[in-house]
Structures are given as C-alpha cells and as structure tokens.
Amino acid sequence: MARASVIPVFYLFGEPHRSAGERFVHLEQLHDRSRPNNWTIRAHAHSELTHLFMIRRGGGVMRAEDRTLNVEAPSLLVIPAGVVHSFKWHWESRGSVLTLADIYLQQFVTRDKHIAELFQMPRAIELAAEDLPHIESRLLDLTRELSWAARGYRAAIDSAVLAIIVTALRRAEQLIDLRAVSPGHHAALVARFRHSIEKRFRLREAMSVHAKALGVSETTLRLACAKIAGMSPGAILDQRALLEAKRALLYSNRSIAEIGFQLGFVDAAYFSRFFRTHAGSSPRAYRADGINGRYTA
C-alpha cells in the first residue's frame, strides 16, 4: 500500500470533512464507492462518524490502524470514529454501509454500558445464518424511513439502528470483555481526561498540568484511571502517543525524527527508545513490517 504524506479525514469517503448533524444516519451499498475505486478504499479516517458494514457476499481485507482483519461474508464490521482504516474487497462483494454520527450514537451508549464496549475498537464479527434475515429486515426499514418524513420516522430509524447494534453486540459477546463500565465520578473524570488528551498529547506535558486542566489533584486522577482503565494516567497518555506514532509510520512518508518531533519528542533517539519500549520493536522495523504486510489481527 502506498503511503501518503497525510492521512485524509473525510466526511463520507471522498467527501470534504464537515461536522455531522446530531441525528446523522446514512445508509448506502458497499459497491456505491468501492466499485468506482476498483474495490480498493485507501487509508482514511472520519473524525465524527462511526461505520457498521454488513457484508452479505464476498469479503476482503480490512486494515484498521496496525491490524489486518480478513473479512468473509456473512459478517458485520465495526469501525469507530477516528480509526484509520482501508479496504481491499473481493471483486463484486456485496453489503450495506451504515454510518452514524458519533453524537447520535451516544444516545444508545448512555442506555446500555455494553454498547460502549462494542465501539471501543474496530472489529469483524462473524454472523450466524439466523442473524441475516433480522439485519436485512432492519436495513430495509432504514431504507424506507430515511427516504421520507412520515409521522414517527425518527423513532422508526432509532429502532432499526438499535436493533442492528444489539444483534452485533450479542453476536460479538464472546469476543468482548463485558466487565461493567464503572459509573459515576471516576468514569466521568477518565472520559474528560481522554478527551483532553486528544488535544494535548503532542505536548508531552507533565501529569500535574493535565490534572490542573481537569481541576483535580494528581492523586485523584491516578485513582480514577486505575479504577476505570486499569492503568496510570501516564500509561494512557503514552498509549495515545504510541497510536499516533504507529499511524504516522504506517501511513505517512515522514521521517522517524519528524514523527517524533511532531509528537513532542525533541530528541529522535529518545523517541526511538520510547517506541521500542512500548511497541517491542524500533520505529524503522515497525514501518518495514507494516509495508511488508506482517501485521495481522
């Protein structure tokens, strides 16, 4: 796969990025964008949109961040907002692509903590034969309700979307750690910390700076992260920086020194040590392995 200098962020694939409406729900066929692109969708991301792909025939290979997932029909793919992903579909594969605004998806997440876990990471869920009629029926409902404005159409859309999500959740249950997401103050604080990290992780700031920005003590932040995430605030910060480093190594032409500098590492050697410690290989070796397709799920 050729590497570009910048990972494109689209609205829908190929469309300039813009903010998604709070009730944005979009449904299209897999071949609508895949066939014109010779069944290859290059690496990209969507900052505010989450995808659910229902693959009913064919399959292919999905690259999500540094994971390679082989996809065979029938299956359902979950691609959370912000995840860098690409596809190489088998010729004339068939399926549907359901796209949801992240803010719209949150209404379902607040109803059931397990739904949040379904969307924590990209995944390919193998469907059973009995799942297909149910999902196909809900997709037909969505096609109808999205095309008109009859009374109750918003509720009907919500019902169909939620039914598809629940089917995916139940089928994926054996693959997901369903430990309860702890409610309350600690969970809210960790959520705020993760949101803050998205804006600040390149600065490599001291943890005291993060705690002050959140209006809490370092001790309180450490306790919340340990209870909710099972790791320290520093580890969460490093995890986010490592993800960005992996993206840049796999999907850009920037030098290792440039990548380190853009992540707040003034010393390229220090960045290389950081990467080796957390990823188990040097940045150069990681990039080479990615180019050669050695990463699998």
Question: Which descriptors would you attach to this protein?
Answer:
globular; Arc Repressor Mutant, subunit A; 2 domains; alpha+beta; 297 residues
Count of beta strands = 9
Q: Whole-number average pLDDT?
A: 86
Gross geometry = globular
CATH class category of the largest domain: Mainly Beta
The tally of structural domains comes to 2
C-alpha Rg, in Å? Answer: 20 Å
- Can you summarize the main beta sheet? 5 strands, antiparallel
> Helix share of residues?
40-55%
H/E element order: EHEEEEEEEHHEHHHHHHHHH
Quote the CATH topology of the largest domain: Jelly Rolls
Structural class: alpha+beta
Ends: how far apart?
18 Å
> What is the second-level CATH architecture of the largest domain?
Sandwich
| Proportion in β-strands | 15-25%
Which strand order does the major sheet show? Answer: 1-8-3-6-9
Provide the CATH superfamily of the largest domain.
Answer: Jelly Rolls
pLDDT < 50 runs, ≥5 residues? 177-182
Give the number of helices: 12
